[in-house]
């Protein structure tokens, strides 16, 4: 019997980058994928996009970090979220993209997704995502990250981000996005998926617990998953569980 291979198709959004999705013309339920401090060159966001494509989604791994290469992650400093908004507009206008679209981000990518959506809602902009899924998210704006100055946990001078420098800007200014300022994702009234490992040694699970508590105070009921004993990124068993929950969430809210 002839084996049937899984076919995943790459499609280029001119001037923006590649997408991964099922064969055919679409339109497909769409997911914009935001990488973390590993940077755009590491391939992790492309790997996550391929996993989503294997489940029938059109996934766009958006590279936003500055500089870097295959050996250096680059930096997340004064990243203009306006450019992310332009990329979102290009993705929505891409012919294979369906009417329903979600954000998915991990770690700094989770922060990026939550910030961009909350700013879009605050400013009354069109094209707000229909759903948001994040893993290991912060509840506050974090400072800048530069891979060239990264130190392992426990090394002298170790810190997850630089509180003296700003990671993001919006409309040409970073004044509204100072480190430690709460991310106002309670403004977003769509479906929201949050997950975190309880043994995260990079960003404490308490960040997600605080985020959930604030959302619930505002009448939101996010879909929340804690992975017992998992670090910042889950191991095999935890990741399998995570993807089951994630795909189920996206199926419910993008295929309606």
Automatic annotation (TrEMBL):
Domain Peptidase S9 prolyl oligopeptidase catalytic positions: 174-254
InterPro entries, per the entry: AB_hydrolase_fold (IPR029058), Peptidase_S9_cat (IPR001375)
SUPFAM superfamilies: alpha/beta-Hydrolases
Xref: PANTHER family: ACYL-COENZYME A THIOESTERASE 1-LIKE (PTHR10824:SF4), ACYL-COENZYME A THIOESTERASE-RELATED (PTHR10824)
Protein name (record): Peptidase S9 prolyl oligopeptidase catalytic domain-containing protein
Lineage, uppermost ranks: Bacteria, Pseudomonadati, Pseudomonadota, Alphaproteobacteria, Geminicoccales
């Amino acid at each position: 019997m002839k084996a049937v291979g899984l076919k995943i198709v790459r499609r280029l959004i001119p001037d923006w980058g590649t997408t991964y999705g099922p064969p055919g013309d679409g339109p497909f339920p769409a997911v914009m994928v935001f990488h973390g401090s590993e940077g755009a060159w590491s391939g992790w966001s492309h790997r996550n996009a391929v996993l989503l494509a294997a489940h029938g989604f059109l996934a766009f791994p958006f590279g936003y970090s500055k500089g870097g290469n295959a050996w250096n992650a680059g930096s997340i400093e004064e990243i203009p979220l306006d450019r992310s908004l332009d990329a979102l507009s290009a993705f929505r206008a891409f012919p294979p993209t369906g009417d329903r679209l979600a954000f998915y981000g991990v770690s700094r990518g989770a922060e990026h997704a939550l910030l961009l959506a909350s700013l879009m809602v605050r400013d009354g902009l069109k094209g707000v995502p229909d759903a948001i899924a994040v893993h290991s998210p912060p509840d506050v704006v974090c400072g800048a990250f530069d891979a060239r100055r990264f130190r392992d946990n426990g090394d002298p001078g170790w810190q997850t981000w630089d509180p003296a420098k700003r990671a993001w800007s919006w409309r040409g200014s970073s004044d509204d996005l100072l480190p430690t300022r709460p991310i106002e994702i309670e403004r977003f009234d769509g479906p929201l998926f949050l997950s975190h490992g309880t043994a995260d040694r990079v960003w404490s699970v308490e960040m997600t617990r605080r985020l959930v508590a604030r959302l619930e105070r505002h009448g939101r009921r996010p879909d929340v998953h804690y992975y017992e004993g998992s670090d910042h990124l889950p191991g095999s068993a935890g990741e399998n569980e995570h993807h089951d929950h994630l795909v189920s969430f996206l199926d419910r809210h993008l295929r309606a």
